Fold this sequence. Notes:
Layout: H1 2-102
Organism: Blautia argi
Protein name: ATPase
Amino acid sequence: MEDIISKLAEIEAAASHIMDDVTEQKKQLALEYEESIQKFDDTIDKEVQKKSENIRQKLEIQMKDELAKQRSETEAVLNQMETYYEEHHTQLAQQIYDKILRK
């Protein structure tokens, strides 16, 4: 009878040891899972940051190009206005003078 009790105690000790090992393995797997999630999150964050930076740079270049285009167009219009004024300033002055006197 003592042999049976001793065997049962051995089996219980072995089962307890197995359960402890399983618990430790579960903890290790949970840590690995958390590390994997963190690595994935970090990778995604870096990719999003990189894409955001690329988009920002592209938009900045587009904005600079648009500003340069607008400056060029504005300068062209101002040059046209100045040329027109230089060519027609006497007529313009006469028209203004006539409008003032006719009132």
